């Protein structure tokens, strides 16, 4: 047995015993069929005209039932998984009811609903001349009634497990809801759909109770294999055993096929992965962005957005501007992006891109492309298929879309990976493909949600470089949500600081670095920021101490004293001489920051003081966690920023 191959911990006896009993309980009846089958007569039993007719009928009925279940069940599963409506619980119970209802009761209910004297029967008879009972279509209806729930449950589960990011990204690339459903949703839930379809078919094939009650037992018309097994059991038990074996084998084959092919996700497991330690991107020559850029800007679009709701702010930007959106967790960064996409009821954006007002347009018609944090590459498409997706959705022909997509992949240095699926790409490669996909869709506004967050430091630096190069050629406005100060400062023309959904500061990086408007921004940018009230010669700190500055501001207002960590010197003895700001404190933490050390000192005067010193200085000072030190800052190194 395969379980032996993987040696795991021994299961507890108390669980293993009943489990083994359960296996025996399920196996015994099957073994009974196998043992009692007259193998010599098997061929004869299975090829009697009656058996062949019943088999034909079973196949016809079960496939029709599967078809009907797909046509009705797929939209039903979608409705249950995706749409919030009153009475959803009742509808779901209704869908599942046939699974728990005794099939004969189901048959009675079908008779009363669709039978000759049922609610709809006379109408079907008069209008279409259809009489379901004692007709093959009746057997189809009965089989569909009991089998469809398997499809709906399986598909609803698969749809519920699909993160909305994929479908939202597809919409942002220009795909209509129907296209998204057929090109993203359905392929991504294919394993669930196929498993549900197989179970539905197997259940329809084995249907007995509802069929005999509703459609009767007419040979050649409604007498399917299970009905024949039941009849034969009285007259010819050996033949009944042979037919049972046939049904058993078919059912088992379905389950085995399902396990092998559809429970392990997409069939990309066996595809070659990049050799560990060998990054194809590193080997591939970086394409010359300028040489490839000519066709890049297909237009120039400014941005004007007035956002209301959770976010309250107005954004104006010239074409080609890159804005880093920063803020604490929960500040409203994602909500702002979703408002611009038209994807959230929590905030509304009156949005103008270039000369066009796109406020009332649905997400797929706005020209706003979104790259979510994980890239959300469609796993069932290759890198090329992903990149061509937006162009195809916007009506570009297949060949043209693919050749343009290939160009974009080349531009981003991942052209050689065009035929790979996302599962075969490294994080950095996937980010580049996601970016290529967004840019290829020719958006008028580009939204990147923490594009580099998932990458390691080395890849991050490389992808950041690529990003900067390609954003330079982008003709629209680009918003990048980030928690990384290096990203904010190095990629953006402007930094938008959000707090509680509002713009706390919106200025060039240099200005934000020099004059951060909140302690959080200062800390994010690696600066000391101590709040306090201005005095004649500096600031009285909220923490208790005071600082003297070279250029005081008007007395009595709230302000932040901003100090770069490099400007804070540490001493073991109280320094004498020029620095006018000296406080005692205790070392709380020492961390590496590039080639320097970052030392956190807690002090009664300023609460937290961060100092950056060389490892050599740290060694000379012999500091460690808990060491008492003196901090000093020159008055000229302190900037006061009014709040
Ligand atoms: N669907 C929702 N329903 C209600 N409140 C929500 C919903 N989504 C987010 N919020 C709240 O709205 C606020 C802003 O959330 P948002 O996700 O925009 O923040 P963020 O700045 O992106 O945060 P983070 O840095 O953690 O990603 C938070 O207080 C959050 O709890």
From TrEMBL:
Name of the protein in its database record: Molybdate ABC transporter permease subunit
Membrane-topology descriptor: Multi-pass membrane protein
Residue ranges annotated for the ABC transporter domain, each copy included: 287-525
Assigned keywords, A-Z: ATP-binding, Membrane, Molybdenum, Nucleotide-binding, Transmembrane, Transmembrane helix, Transport
All copies of domain Mop, residue ranges: 576-642
PANTHER family in the cross-refs: SPERMIDINE/PUTRESCINE IMPORT ATP-BINDING PROTEIN POTA (PTHR42781), SPERMIDINE_PUTRESCINE IMPORT ATP-BINDING PROTEIN POTA (PTHR42781:SF4)
Domain of life (superkingdom): Bacteria
